[in-house]
Write a structure and sequence with these properties.
Elements (H helix, E strand, L loop, with lengths): L7 H4 L3 H12 L4 H8 L3 H19 L5 H11 L5 H19 L2
Helix pairs in contact: 3-4, 4-5, 5-6
Length: 102
């Protein structure tokens, strides 16, 4: 059975994220096995999994407007740092509240 519609949470994942998920499933969720396959340490794999979890959570957070979701995706993908992301989101939300009040 082929997937005819890609789930929304998968749309923003990169090809290497999908490959990681496949390896993770085939390794029965063993981070130690994945670390061996990628020739990296367990903490490195744990960090990669944590970032992947963040990406999925961001895509499933339907309360976010597109701009906030974009900023969060940039931070998770290491395009901008988290402190910068927080500042951008905070300023964006302040600006939005000021405009809605008058």
């Amino acid at each position: 059975m082929a997937i005819e519609v890609v789930p929304e949470w998968m749309e923003n994942l990169e090809d290497e994220d999908i490959a990681f998920i496949k390896k993770f499933i085939l390794a029965s969720g063993s981070l130690k096995e994945i670390a061996n396959q990628y020739s990296v340490t367990y903490p490195t794999v744990r960090l990669r999994l944590d970032k992947l979890i963040q990406k999925i959570k961001i895509s499933e957070d339907t309360t976010n407007d597109p701009y906030v979701a974009l900023i969060k995706r940039l931070a998770v993908n290491d395009k901008i740092d988290f402190d910068t992301a927080k500042i951008l989101i905070s300023e964006y939300r302040k600006f939005g509240k000021e405009n809605s009040n008058g």
